[in-house]
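[step 3/7] fold_predict: job queued, chain A
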Amino acid sequence: GLKVKTVHKAVENEIVEVSRADRPALSANELLCLQLEGELAEYLPLSVRRRVIRGVAGQPRIARFRASDVLVVEVASARRRLASSLRKLHLARRAVTTDPDVMGGEPVVKGTRVPVHAVACMVEQGTPMSDILAGYPSLSAEQVELAAVYACAYPPRGRPKKQPWADTPVRTTKVTLDDPK
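[step 4/7] structure written:
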């Protein structure tokens, strides 16, 4: 999925036009346009991306968009990748639960007390799957992947919480000084 910052930038640069400012939800066509923006941003300048995405937005069922004689965008394949991502997000939503009585309402993997964002942080930092599963034996590899998908789609709001152990030294050593007489 796209990072939230990329989505905001696409809307700000008027690459993707969001039709409903009063609702945070995006239509399927707007999601397709964001998918294309994410894939084209690395290869095409802003003006070309804007023209391609507006052309696709005007013809939502199109399979290919011909921007010029040398540039043809395969919209159907982007649509398939988007559908796959949305299915994965749906599975991730079903694998996560929130309950005010469990972990203070923080999203956890269903059937456990394992915080979704803690698992996702480990995945993002490149922790090997075997280490994550050893640390959380109640999870499966699929649950770890779905937790990462969920956390990407629903990042924690506000400032990060300060962890109680953040300022705790890793090791303390007492040294006695001999009396220099």
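[step 5/7] annotate
The first helix runs from residue 4 to 12.
The mean pLDDT is 85.
exit 0
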